[in-house]
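Look over this record as teaching material.
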Amino acid sequence: MCIIGGMKSDTYQRVNISLPSTTLKRIDTIAEHGNRSRLIDTAVNFYIKQQSRKMLEEAIKEESILWRKRDRQIAEEWARLDDPWPEY
């Protein structure tokens, strides 16, 4: 890590990427001069967080469907039993 402006930061590595010219123009319209990298870094991290959240939501949904089936089976089994707590 290196320290930039008093804040800890990951070490930066230069990479070469290819983007459509329309995408690059859009980046340039909103990125401050010389800060394309920061904008792309922010966008990629946002996308990764959204994808992670989406994957978690899908996993929760799948698990809840499985638990719902199990819970329904348990409730049906209990409904078939005689009252286990008779009144005295």
Remarks:
- The mean pLDDT is 85.
- Strands lie at 2-4, 7-9.
- The chain has one domain: 18-80.
- The chain is about 60% helix and 5% strand.
